[in-house]
Structure formats: C-alpha cells, structure tokens
Amino acid sequence: MLKLIDIKKVYKTETLEQIALHNVSISFRKNEFVSILGPSGSGKTTLLNIIGGLDQYTSGDLIINGASSKSFKSEDWDAYRNNSVGFIFQSYNLISHLSIRDNVEMGMKLSGISTSERRKKAEDALIKVGLKDHIEKRPNQLSGGQMQRVAIARAIANDPEIILADEPTGALDTETSIQVMEIIKELAKEKLVIMVTHNPELAEEYSDRIVRFKDGQLIEDTNPVLDSSITSDYKLKHTSMSFFTALKSSGKNVLSKKWRTALTSFASSVGIIGVALVLSLSNGFSNQIDDFQTEMLSSLPITVSDGPSTSIIPSPPTGENGNTLDEFPTTKKMYVNAPSEDETTKTHTNVLTDEYVDYVYKLDSELVSSYSLSRSVELPVLKLVDGKATKLNTTNLPLTTYPSEDTTNSTTYLEENYDLLAGDFPKSESELLLVVDSYNQLDVQAANELGLTDDVIKLSSLIGKEFKLLSNDQYYVKNGDTFRVNGNPSDLSTLYNDKNSQTLNISGVIRIKEDAQVKALSTGLLYSDALNEHFIAEAQQSEIVLAQEKADYNVLTGEALGEETSPSTQLPEMDPTAMTSGDFTKPLTKDATLAKLGAISTPVSISIYPTTFEAKDSILDYLDAWNDDKAEDEAIEYTDMAEVMSSSLNTVIDTISYVLIAFASISLIVSMIMIGIIIYVSVLERTKEIGVLRALGARKKDITRLFNAETFIIGATSGILGIGITYLLSVPINIIIENLTDFSNIASLNPVHGIALIVLSIVLTMLGGLLPAKMAAKKDPVVALRNE
Ligand code: ADP
Ligand code: MG
Fold first, then answer.
1. N or C: which end of the chain has fewer CB within 10 A?
2. For residues 692-712, b (16+ Cβ closer than 10 Å) or e, as one string?
3. How far is the C-alpha of 564 from the C-alpha of 568, rounded, in Å?
4. For helices 243-256 and 258-295, what crossing angle results, to 10°?
5. Whole-angstrom distance, CA of residue 309 vs CA of residue 638
6. How many Å apart are CA 140 and CA 144, to the nearest integer?
7. Which neighbouring-strand residues pair with 466?
8. Whose CA is nearest to atom 7 of ligand 1?
9. Which atom number of ligand 1 is nearest to the Cα of residue 38?
10. What's the DSSP call for residue 562?
11. What is the rounded distance in angstroms from the CA atom of residue 678 to the CA atom of residue 766?
12. Secondary structure of the chain: what % helix, strand, coil (to 5)?
C-alpha cells in the first residue's frame, strides 16, 4: 500500500548540502509491523517524516495506495496526515493545556467529525490503551508510560491506516516499554506500523520485519515486498479547523496562563480606557453644552432696534492690482492702506413701525417666552424721601420695563431666570420689582434715590415701598409759551398726595439665578409694559404733547429743536439709553422730544426671548420672512446674541477632545505592539504544539486561526475590561467634577462608543498578533517537532 521509489532527501543549509536519504526504495504491506534500525543520523526520522507527509522528499516518488504523491499540494499533505497517518513521538508531544480527552480528539476536530462520534472514538481509543480512568486529567498529571499511551490513543483515534512511531520507547523504562510495545503490536494486526527504534531486542521480539539504515541508505530488509502491483484510487478528505474549535483551544491555552492574560489584557485596556474616558467626557460636555444652549443661551434675546447700526464686513485688504494681501508677508514692500468705507462697513437703519411690532407679536406663543419693549418715554414718577416728594431720577435708579409675555403681565421669563429674594412677582401693573446684583448689591446713588442711608438693608423692608405716577397734565402746567413742573421741583408733596396720582409699589426683590450665564437685566426698578402703554394712551391727549406737536421749539425748555438728520450720518447719539437719561449733549429732535413725553407708542427696540434653542431658529426664520418682499433699505435687521457665544464653545470642546484622543491613541498603538510581542512569545512557547497540530493534519490556515483566536480573546477581554473600568471610573469622576463645577454626569460614555471601542480593541490586537500568527503558520512542522 505504500511504495517509496528512489526517494532522495537533501537538506540545504547555508554552508553545505546534507543528504539525509540516498535514493531509498522500499514498499510496505497493508498490515505489518516494521522496525527500522540504524545509528543516529542515518536518516530514520527523515524517512518517517516523508512517509507521514510531514516533510517533503527532494526527488523520487511516494506512491500511496497506488497513487503518486508528486502532485500533492500542501493541503493534500495535510489531509493525508489527518486521514491516513497517526504519529507517535519519543517525547509524546501532548498539548499540555488540553485535557487527555481534548488531546485525543484534536485530530478528529480538524476533520470535522461530529461531537458525539468524536467522543466515542476518543473514549474507545483511550480504553484500548488502558487509560479509561484518566480521561479528564491533564498530561502533566500522568507518568511517562501513560503519556505515551495517550499519544498512541491520539494516533489511532481517527482510525488511520498507517501508524508511524519514532522511538516510542526511547524515554521509557524496560517495563513500560514492554507495555507500550504490546499495544503497538496489537495495532499492527490491522494497520501498517512503522517504528524507529534503537533497541534491536524489542525489534526482534515484536516486529514482523526489520529494516536497517546507514548513512541515509537502506542496507538490510528482512522481509522485502516482492510483488507490489496493487493499484487503487486514493481519496482524501480535506481538513479544516473551525474558528470555534480554534477559539476553544486558544481559550484553554489563555486560561492556563491566567495571570499573564489578565495583566496583558489590563495593560492593553489602558489605551481603551483613555479613549473611552475622553469620549465619555466630551460626550458629557457636549450634552452639557446642549443643555447650556437650550437653557442659558435661549435666555438671550433676539433684539430689533430702531435706528442705524453699523456692521463691519470683513474683507481682506488689497494691494497691487487689487490682489488680496497675505498676512506677515516676506516682501520688502509697504502698502498704503486706504480702505473704501462702502466696502468694509455697512450701515443699515431700522425703522420700527407699529405694523412691525404687531407682526412680531403674532409669533407663535410656543416659540416665545417673553418680549421686552424699550421706549424712550420718561415717566413722571415721584418718590417720598424724608417727607419731601421729588421726581425719581432715572439716571441714578434706572426704571425699565421687564420682559413679559405678550401684553399680559406674565412674568414667566423672570421666574425662570431670576430668584425672588423677597415679596412676590407683580400681580398688577402698579407693582414694581427691584433688581439687585449677584452680590445682593445696589448702587449707592440708587439706594439714595430710594431714601436708604444704611449700608445694610433688610430685604423685607423694601417690599411695599411706594411711588406715585403722575399724568402729563398733572405734572406739567402751561407757563406762557412753555411748560413747567406743576409746583416746586424740590418738594412736590401736593402732587404726591393728589388722589388722581397712581400709586406704585415694590412687590418683590429679585436677583439673577446662580446658574444663569446671562445677566440680561441691570440693577434698578422694573415695571410692566402695560403701565407704559396706559401712560402713553393718556399722554397722547395731554396738553403738553398737543402743544409740542404744534411747536417748532422744545416746549419744556424753550430751546430750539435738534435737526432731523439723515439716518446714515447720525450714529451713536441714537442710543436709546441716552434718550431716557436726560443727559444730552445735542438738542433733542422733535420726534425724540415727543417720544420722551410719551406721545409715540412705537417702541425703540423690541427683544424677543425664545422658549428653546430650536424655537430661536423658527423665530429668526419668521423675522427673515418680513424682509422677503422689502427693499434693502426698508428691511429690518436683528441681532442674535446667542449665536456668537455657542459656536465657539463647541469648537473648543471638539478641539480638546481631538487632542486628548490623539494622546490616548498612542497608548492604543503601544498596546498593539505589546500584543504583537505577547503573541510572538506565545508562538515560541507553542512551537511544539504547532508541530503536533500540523502532524495531526492542521493546515497553515488553521495555525493562523489558532493564534488569531488567541488575539481575539485578548482583544475582547481588554476591550470589555476597558469599557467596564471606564464605567466604574465614571462614578468617582462624576462625583469629583460635580463637587468642583456643579456639572452633574459629565462622564457618560455613549454605549455605542463603548461597543465601537471593544470592536476597535479586537481589531487592533488582532492586527498586532497577525504577523506572529502568520509566522507560526510558516513554521516547518519537522523543525517545530524537533524543537526541544
Ligand atoms: P536519525 O533519525 O536517523 O537520527 P535524522 O533523520 O534525524 O536521523 O537525520 C538524518 C540526517 O539529516 C542527519 O545527518 C541530520 O543532521 C540531517 N538533518 C535532519 N534534519 C535536518 C534539517 N532540518 N536540516 C539539516 N539537516 C538535517
Ligand atoms: Mg531520529
């Protein structure tokens, strides 16, 4: 059944060619026990390896069951070894991290025999060699003789036709040698057994045929085959190790080195932990920023103001021939900078009309939390200090309207963004609020306006403090061609006590909330816009307003009115705060004078407070829609404060994250290299095992797969470990951050990122282990098995 024709084996080394076999021709019968004798180095092992397909002959032919093996590819040899050959080695070559059962089953796993059949065959083989009671033990729990019997069981389990034994008793004492020989002799009854031995007595006693070798040549054959003309077809069943088998085997190997695996996984998880923490922190921060955007930035209003505004359109300076200039140029030239004003700045004048204000008020109430109107009207409000009633000086104590929802007196915006320190939010239009700063402070001038002289004042004592609002007709009386205050300006008690004057009182003291990032209102008194509107309605019919409308001079001062200048040239003077402060450097225009007296109801600016960050976009769309059918100079432009702030914040977080991830990635690369080294060491350690597996018929691919399975396990372990540790670390990190900054849940790893990182860890470690795994597959099984 086996026929060697002129087999020649030459080992080529760097320095010389070693001829291990010299044109050996020999045939073997289907059932016989052949012993090969010969001195060391005579080529016996080489012959066995060639017969077993573990090593390839240089020339000649090996006829297997009548078929030439000349055209065998590496996978055919693998299948041949797996299907037809069982090897028994002097040094047993058991895989130490697998149980006896798994060792015996390994060859059958490669040929894809079902689990139950595999178990049965393995048990039968172990019973045959008398090791029934040791099935679950590990190789290092057995004696030498027992280990050799396991090796025999492994060789016969898959029922091969050929058993090749290389000095099977070489390491055993006489007694156990005899036991092993008995078993081998038993096998020879139905198989071809070829055994190399140094022991001529054993050979004489047990074998049917003795073949002697010397210097790579056959010198004696006691029972040569004379007729060998049998021909038949020889079919090979190809082998393959499933990834699952590889995973299980590697899993057991990894488990047998628990501490090394644990440390390796931990070390390589550090990179994953780094990246995961950065991701979780940046995730938490961007969540925080989203919250910040919706909560804080949405409290910034969109403001539309009457009058001109200048915006600078950044355009790079131009030099020769109109080319744009580079910054920090290397040229030895100087350029004269004469910017054309039209190009770089744009002045636009908004003209707020009642129509526009109505349009703004028609915004969906879901989008707007409140409106704040600003008018130039100066309310004649009297205060009573030390028994003397005087006009409230709004330069010292600003008197402005608070943002309110539509025309109702709702104070939602204030309630959301301000803490009520004392009293209540206003319930009627005659109730005022006092705003203090974040230190609970009020300017000394403002305090004096309120008649407060102490340095420290109880908040509760401020509640209920009264003021009187007069009508224009009460406050101003005609005095020839002009008007004057109705009474002695330093004591207006009569007016103060007039039953027609409207009583106002402070209903509450408020302060900006601690977590609010935007301080929209300055300190001072706040009143409702409804009060304003009522005053304006009445003022429009007042004597002084009617007189002012007709007069071409200021009816209060008798001075000339300011020029109504063209909008493009009047710039900073139109600041609305300057209008109400009463501190003018230029004479007021007629319109401004009328507005101050309350004759004009159109506000000078309107601020819209969006409910959410998204609502803001809808509001902006709505405001843009107004301009759609308008000429450019009729368009109304707005300022959006929030936009400027938010975009820069996100960029900062993104940049920081990228930098940190780049640093953490370095540790990923380091761990990848480390895994490569670990796998390389593992390959070195498992060289024997690689040889055994190849002898059992494992393909090169299967060996690669085995080590890939190992890196897969390490990669997955370190990935899962890393993510687990990250989640654990998030707890103390969040506690620390919350203590330091008030931000809660900053470290919150997105589960999707977690899974992606585990996959990344697997991919990277497998990449790191790929090279050593390929190296393992390339190992010559003969060399691997010779390795001690
Ligand atoms: P035996 O088993 O009879 O002791 P071997 O078959 O192992 O002898 O070796 C036969 C000859 O081939 C020896 O001279 C040995 O040095 C040489 N040899 C075996 N393997 C190699 C190899 N991989 N490279 C070079 N020479 C080898
Ligand atoms: Mg040998």
1. C
2. bbbbbbbbbebbbbbbbbbbb
3. 12
4. 110
5. 10
6. 9
7. 505
8. 45
9. 3
10. P
11. 12
12. 45, 20, 35
The residue behind tokens 């059918």 is 629
Which ligand places an atom closest to the C-alpha of 40? 1
- Residue in the structure block whose two tokens are 């707020």: 352
CA distance 292 to 289: 5
In the reported structure, the alpha carbon of residue 191 is separated from the centroid of ligand 2 by a whole-number distance in angstroms of 22
Of the candidates 518, 526, 503, 504, the one whose C-alpha atom is nearest the C-alpha of residue 420 is 526
The single-letter code of the amino acid at 783 is V
Q: What is the pLDDT of residue 646?
A: 59
11 CB less than 6 Å from ligand 1?
yes
DSSP annotation of 586: S
Residue 16 has pLDDT above 60, yes or no: yes
CA of residue 317 relative to chain centroid, distance: 42
Q: Which two tokens stand for residue 512?
A: 């900006």
Look at the alpha carbons of 423, 426, 430, 431 in this order and tell me if their dihedral is positive or negative. positive
Task: Report whether residue 43 contacts ligand 1, using a CB cutoff of 6 Å.
Answer: yes
Let me know: does 90 contact 126? Beta carbons within 8 Å: no
For residues 150 and 688, give the distance between their C-alpha atoms in angstroms, rounded to a whole number: 16
* 118 to 17, 122, 138, 156: CA distances (angstroms): 44, 6, 19, 12
Report the alpha-carbon distance of residue 91 to residue 171 in Å, rounded. 7
- How far, in Å, is the centroid of ligand 2 from the Cα of 40? 7
Strand partners, 483: 478
pLDDT band for position 271 (cuts 50, 70, 90): confident
Q: Which residues contact 115 (CB under 8 A, 6 or more apart)?
A: none
Cβ pair 699, 769 in contact under 8 A:
no
State how far the Cα of 269 lies from the Cα of 718, in Å rounded to an integer.
5
Locate the ligand 1 atom nearest the alpha carbon of residue 40 and give its number. 4
- Residue 169's nearest CA partner among 138, 143, 152, 148 is 148
Full-prediction pTM beyond 0.85? no
Cα distance between residue 520 and residue 313, in whole Å: 27
Give the ligand 1 atom nearest the CA of 42: 3
Backbone torsions φ then ψ of 525, nearest 5 degrees: -100, 140
Which SS3 state, helix, strand or coil, does residue 248 take?
Answer: helix
Parallel, antiparallel, or unpaired for β 302-305 and 605-610? Answer: antiparallel
Q: How far is the CA of 313 from the centre of ligand 2 (A)?
A: 90
Give phi and psi for 199, each to the nearest 5. -105, 95
Atom of ligand 1 nearest to the CA of 18: 26
Q: Coil, strand or helix: which one is 566?
A: coil
Q: What is the atom index within ligand 1 of the atom nearest the CA of 216?
A: 10
Averaged pLDDT, 648-659: 75
| Rounded distance between C-alpha atoms, residue 618 and residue 783, angstroms | 76
Ligand 2 centre distance from Cα of residue 54 (Å): 14
Q: What is the pLDDT of residue 578?
A: 42
Say how many Å lie between the CA of residue 46 and the centre of ligand 2: 7
Q: Which residues of 89-99 are buried (b: 16+ CB within 10 A; e: fewer)?
A: bbbbbbbebbb
Q: What is the pLDDT of residue 740?
A: 85
Tokens of 524: 């001072």
- What whole-number distance in Å separates Cα of residue 288 and Cα of residue 296? 11
| Residues constituting the chain | 788
Among candidates 620, 660, 658, which has minimal Cα distance to 639? 620
Cα–Cα distance for residue pair 775/769, rounded to 1 Å = 10
Q: Is the CB of 50 under 6 A from ligand 1?
A: no
Cα(150)–Cα(209) distance, integer angstroms:
26
The one-letter amino acid code at 706 reads L
473-497 confidence digits (pLDDT tens): 999 999 888 899 998 888 898 889 9
271, 277, 283, 288 alpha-carbon torsion, rounded to 10°: -160
Give me the pLDDT at residue 35, please: 96
How far apart are the C-alpha atoms of 251 and 713, rounded to whole Å?
A: 7
- Alpha-carbon distance of 620 to 216, in angstroms, equals 95
